[in-house]
Each structure stands twice: as C-alpha cells, then as structure tokens.
C-alpha cells in the first residue's frame, strides 16, 4: 500500500536508486535484463519509473522493494510518514 500510495513522491525523491536495484539483483528479485534497463536510464526519476514498471509487470514482489527502499532511503519514510499523520489530522 505504501509503495502505491506514494508512487509519485518516491519516483521524484529517491536518490539512491542503484543501491536498491543492486540489492534486488543480488537477492535474485530482478533479472539482469531489467537491471540493465534500469541502469541505462539517465536520471534517478527515470530509473525509479523503470523499477516501478518491473513491479507493475509482476517481475518481483513489492516486499523486497519496500525493504531495500527502507534500508537506503530511511529519511523518506520519516518524511512521508509525517505527511500521512498531518493529513489524517486535517480530515
């Protein structure tokens, strides 16, 4: 749910895409063809878009992506979690 709800923010804000992708490859969650396609993308945003495409296509489960994202971009969870709390207070 978190990955789907924050897709746009994550695509725009994740800066350490390749460490996440490297971890998914090492865990055999991505095939090398997808890894190469992501690596060729020129910007972090395009790399994240490619990573989400692989997720959408069912190439890997979102649990591995979520875990790697939390490991390499913990500040985003703090930021987005705070955002969620503030939004709930406004409702």
What does this protein structure show overall?
Helices cover 78% and strands 0% of the residues. The two termini are 20 Å apart. The C terminus is likely disordered. The protein has one domain: Death Domain, Fas, CATH 1.10.533.10. The chain has 7 helices and no strands. It is mainly alpha-helical and 91 residues long.
Features:
91 residues; mainly alpha; Death Domain, Fas; 7 helices; globular
* CATH secondary-structure class: Mainly Alpha
The end-to-end distance, rounded to whole angstroms, is: 20 Å
- Main β-sheet: number of strands, strand sense, barrel status? none
* Beta-strand percent range: under 5%
The CATH architecture category equals: Orthogonal Bundle
Rg from Cα: 13 Å
Going by CATH, what is the homologous superfamily?
A: Death Domain, Fas
Low-confidence stretches: 84-91
Mean pLDDT across the residues is: 87
Overall structural domain count: 1
Structural class: mainly alpha
Query: What is the third-level CATH name, the topology?
Result: Death Domain, Fas
What's the helix count?
7
Q: What's the total number of strands?
A: 0
SSE string: HHHHHHH
Helicity range = over 70%
Based on Cα principal axes, name the global outline: globular
